[in-house]
Amino acid sequence: MAQDSTQQAPTTRPATPARALLPFILPAAVVGVVSSLVFVGVSAAAERLQQVLWGPLPDALGIGRYSVLWMFVMLIATGVAVGLVVWKAPGHAGPDPATMGLNAPVMPPLVLPGLVLATGLMLAGGPSLGPENPIIAVNIALAAWLGGRFLPRMPGSLWPVLAESATIGALFGTPVAAALVISEALAGRPIRGLLWDNLFAPLTAAACGSMTTALVAHPTFDLHLPPIGHPHGRDLLAALVIASAAALLGMCAVYAFPYVHTAFGRLRHPMLMLPAGGVVLGALAALGGHLTLFKGLSEIGELARDPEGWSAGQFATMTVVKLAALLVAASCGFRGGRIFPAVFVGTALGLCSHALVPAVHPALGVATGVLGMLLAITRQGWVSLFTAAVLVASPAILALLCIASLPAWLLVTGRPQMQLHKDGTPIR
C-alpha cells in the first residue's frame, strides 16, 4: 500500500562535516586565550590598585581603612575619576552601561582604552558592579578588529560569539556557563545543522578561556558550605519560598531602574552624574558596612565562612543595601556588570533566611536566594541555575533548584528587564 502523502518521514538536520569545523579551532583557541588574559590582566591591575587605595593609603593618612569617612572619600573620588574618563576619553568609555547586556555591540578600538580604564577604576574604588559587561565588550571589539584584519575570510558574525563565549568561560572558570548562554541564545532561532555543530567553535573558545584563567588565576566559586545531604519536604518548601522571595525583591530593583537612571540622567554630565552616584554609594556603604562594597565575590566568601556571625537583621540590611548600591551604580554611569553583586544580594538573603529559620540549611538558602535574584536581574535561566549550583557544590540540591526556578521564573518572565533601550525605556 502506498504511503499517504500527508505522512512524511521525520526530517533531520544534516550534520556538519568535520572538515568544515576544523578551521574554527585555531581562531577560537586564540580568542579564548586572549580574552582570558584581558580579563585576568584588568582584574589583577584593579586588585593591586584596590589594595593600595584601601590599605597603605588610609593607613598613611591615619584614617581607618573602612571608616565612614574613607568610604565616602573613596567612592566620591572614584566617581570623579571615572567621570573624567567618561568625559574626556575618546569614545567616552563606550555607550551608556544601562543599555548594555552580555551581548555587547562591536565598538571601535579607539573606545577600548577609556573603557578599560573606567572599569579598572570602578573595580578598585568600591562601587557595586562586576567586570563582566565591559570585559565582554572589550574582548568582542578586539576579536572583531583583529579577526577582520588577519582572517578576513572568516564570517564577521563569528568573532563576537567567540569573544563572548571565551570571556564567560574565563569569568566563571568553566566552559559550561558559556555553552549554556550560547544555547539559550540560539533557542528559537533558525539554525543550520546540529546544535553541537553550532556550539563547537564557541565551546572551543570558552574551554581555552576557562583553562587559561584556571592556570593563571586559580579561581573558585565554591563557598565551602556544609553539603545539604538528602533533601526533605521542608527543604522543598524553603527552596520555593526563598527563590520566589528573591525574585520579587530583585524585581523591585528592576522596576526602579529606569526611574533612578532618569534621575541621574537629569544631571546631564558625567562629572555630575558619577560623583553624585559616589555620594549616594558612600551613604549606602555607611549604612551597610564595607562588605557591601566592590563586586562582592570575595565578600560572599567572608559571609559564608561564618554563617552564624551576623544576625538576621544584619543580613537583611546588607541585602537591601547591596541591591540599592547595585541599582545606583548601574544607573549613574559606572562601567560594570550586574551578575556578581546580584550573587552577593542572593547570598545575604539566603543567609538571612537561615538566621530567621535555623531549619533552613545555609547552602539551600544561599543557592535558592542567588537563583531567584539572578533570574530577576539577568533573565538568564541557565546561568542562574549554574551559578547557584556551583556556589554550594552539592549534587543533592540540583533537583530543588530546578523546581524552585519554576515559580521564580513565572514571577519575572514577560516583565521589564534590568537593561534599557537608548530612549530610557526598559527592555522586555
Automatic annotation (TrEMBL):
GO terms for molecular function: chloride transmembrane transporter activity. It is a multi-pass membrane protein. The keyword Transmembrane helix applies. Pfam families: Voltage_CLC. CDD domains: Voltage_gated_ClC (cd00400). The chain crosses the membrane at residues 20-46, 67-86, 106-123, 135-152, 158-182, 194-216, 236-260, 272-293, 313-332, 339-361, 381-412. Keywords: Membrane, Transmembrane, Transmembrane helix. The keyword DNA repair does not apply. It is found in: Membrane. Its main location: membrane. InterPro entries: Cl-channel_core, ClC, ClC-type_chloride_channel. GO terms for cellular component: plasma membrane. This is Ion channel protein. The lineage of its organism: Bacteria, Bacillati, Actinomycetota, Actinomycetes, Kitasatosporales.
